[in-house]
Amino acid sequence: MPITKPFMASRRFSATAADGTGVGVAFNILATATTNDTGTPATAFPTAPAYYNLYINGQIQTADTSTVTTTAITIPNGDALDPATPIVIEFVVN
Questions:
Q1: 42-68 b/e with 16+ CB inside 10 Å = b?
Q2: How many Å apart are CA 85 and CA 82, to the nearest integer?
Q3: pLDDT at 52
Q4: Are the C-beta atoms of 89 and 69 separated by less than 8 Å?
Q5: Residue 49 φ then ψ, to 5°
Q6: Would you say 41 and 32 are in contact if contact means Cβ atoms under 8 Å apart?
Q7: Burial of 5 (0-12, 13-18, 19+ CB in 10 A)
């Protein structure tokens, strides 16, 4: 039987589409281009989250919309978004 960790918390990071780089399938937003829950610049995303949610303009996105590493989130064709579009990445950690 797997061991389930009893503690769950979230870490949120925010940016706008203008903070991203690249085009098409290579569009990404670096972790260092986001701010964390305390409003300070982030240095990295969590290393082993239970899962994450991506919100674009306040709307939760499906799992096939992005991929994430500790250094960046890739949003294919995110360069088509208006530069002022808010992006929020929420990681659930345990």
A1: beebbeebeebebebeeeeeeeeebeb
A2: 5
A3: 97
A4: no
A5: -70, 155
A6: yes
A7: exposed
Is 42 in contact with 31 (CB distance < 8 Å)? yes
In the numeric block, which tokens belong to residue 87? 């992006």
**pLDDT tens by residue, 37-78:** 999 999 999 998 999 999 999 999 999 999 999 999 999 999
Can you read off the two tokens belonging to residue 16? 């706008």
Which tokens sit at 51?
């899962």
Measured CA to CA, the distance from residue 7 to residue 79 in angstroms comes to 36
CA angle 31–33–37, rounded 5-degree value = 70
Bridge partner residues of 52 (DSSP): 91
Q: How far apart are CA 73 and CA 89, in angstroms?
A: 9
Neighbours of 69 (CB within 10 A): 12
Q: Which residue has the tokens 């085009």?
A: 23
